[in-house]
């Protein structure tokens, strides 16, 4: 996939998560489309779609680019979104947009480090992101 399409995919993914749908809603949507992923894989795909294997990039991009505002989105809207992975993903998208990939990865690493040491971890499903 060319660089311009990957950049657009990042923009569309960020917009979708900020305005349209929560992280659990995206997971359900991908499951319905036959792309079942655990939280860590989906988080990785949404955060850095350019790092997806080439054979997955096109179907993933099609699901994001050609989404429609339908009953599914209406069912999974949640203002404010209360899922911690959703909140973390939005924050990291914002950091990535403003300060770049490296800063976003550093912020993610720090968030996961703090979360692992927490008495009540919020991001347990993605603690192995960097492994």
Describe it for me?
The chain has one domain. The protein is built from seven helices and no strands. It has helices spanning 3-20, 23-32, 39-47, 54-65, 71-76, 84-99, 101-117. It is globular. It starts with a helix and ends in a 14-residue tail after the last helix.
| Gyration radius from CA atoms, angstroms | 14 Å
Shape call: globular
- Count of individual beta strands: 0
Order of helices and strands: HHHHHHH
* Tally of helical runs: 7
Question: Main β-sheet, in a few words?
Answer: none
Count of all domains? 1
User: Share of helix among residues?
Assistant: 55-70%
End-to-end gap:
25 Å
Describe the SSE topology.
Elements: H1 3-20, H2 23-32, H3 39-47, H4 54-65, H5 71-76, H6 84-99, H7 101-117
Helix pairs in contact: 1-6, 6-7
Please tag this protein with its features.
131 residues; mainly alpha; 0% strand; globular
In short, what is this structure?
This protein has 131 residues and is mostly helical. Helices cover 67% and strands 0% of the residues.
């Amino acid at each position: 996939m060319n660089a311009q399409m990957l950049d657009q995919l990042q923009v569309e993914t960020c917009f979708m998560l900020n305005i349209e749908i929560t992280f659990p809603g995206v997971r359900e949507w991908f499951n319905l489309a036959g792309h079942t992923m655990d939280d860590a894989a989906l988080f990785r795909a949404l955060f850095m779609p350019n790092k997806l294997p080439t054979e997955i990039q096109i179907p993933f991009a099609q699901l994001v680019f050609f989404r429609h505002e339908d009953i599914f989105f209406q069912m999974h809207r949640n203002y404010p979104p209360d899922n911690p992975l959703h909140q973390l993903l939005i924050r990291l998208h914002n950091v990535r947009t403003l300060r770049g990939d490296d800063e976003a990865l550093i912020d993610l690493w720090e968030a996961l480090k703090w979360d692992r040491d927490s008495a009540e971890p919020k991001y347990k499903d993605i603690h192995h992101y960097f492994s």
